[in-house]
Amino acid sequence: MFNDIGPLELVTLIVLAVLVFGPDKLPKLIQDVTRTIRKIREFSESAKEDIRQELGPEFKDFEFEDLNPKTFIRKQLDNDELGLKEIRNGFDLKKEMAEVTDAVHSREAESTPSAGSSGSSGGTIDMTKKPETPRDERPPYDADAT
């Protein structure tokens, strides 16, 4: 629960608690807090047991931590009943991006020598060029926008 609190921070919190609540009230406050935490844990455990009993015997190994999406996916990847590792390993994003980049660069190399062509030589389209628009045609005018 307090994994990221260092010793210096812990000492600072203790000194601050003594200053705020005083040395007389601090032990009673600690007892009240621990009692409240115990009651919350007991309530939580009893609620979990009630839910497990209501679900029935087929869910007796059900863990509430599995409701966390990260835990669920990690558990399913380890189980690998669905073949998710094959899917994940079969999809290499870096490789796919490199192939797309190579394809784009090769198309640019093909279209550069034929600068006078319309860009559709060999059935490929140069996506880096802007589409040609007739110069006589004006863009639509919206009087409300001005």
UniProtKB/TrEMBL annotation:
It is a single-pass membrane protein. Keywords: Cell membrane, Membrane, Protein transport, Translocation, Transmembrane, Transmembrane helix, Transport. Residues 99-110, 127-146 have a biased composition (Basic and acidic residues). Its main location: membrane. It comes from Streptomyces lanatus. The gene is tatB. This is Sec-independent protein translocase protein TatB. The Tat system comprises two distinct complexes: a TatABC complex, containing multiple copies of TatA, TatB and TatC subunits, and a separate TatA complex, containing only TatA subunits. Substrates initially bind to the TatABC complex, which probably triggers association of the separate TatA complex to form the active translocon. It comes from the Bacteria. Part of the twin-arginine translocation (Tat) system that transports large folded proteins containing a characteristic twin-arginine motif in their signal peptide across membranes. Together with TatC, TatB is part of a receptor directly interacting with Tat signal peptides. TatB may form an oligomeric binding site that transiently accommodates folded Tat precursor proteins before their translocation. Pfam families: TatA_B_E. It is found in: Cell membrane; Membrane. Residues 99-146 are annotated as: Disordered. Transmembrane segments: none annotated. Belongs to the TatB family. HAMAP family: TatB. The keyword Nucleotide-binding does not apply.
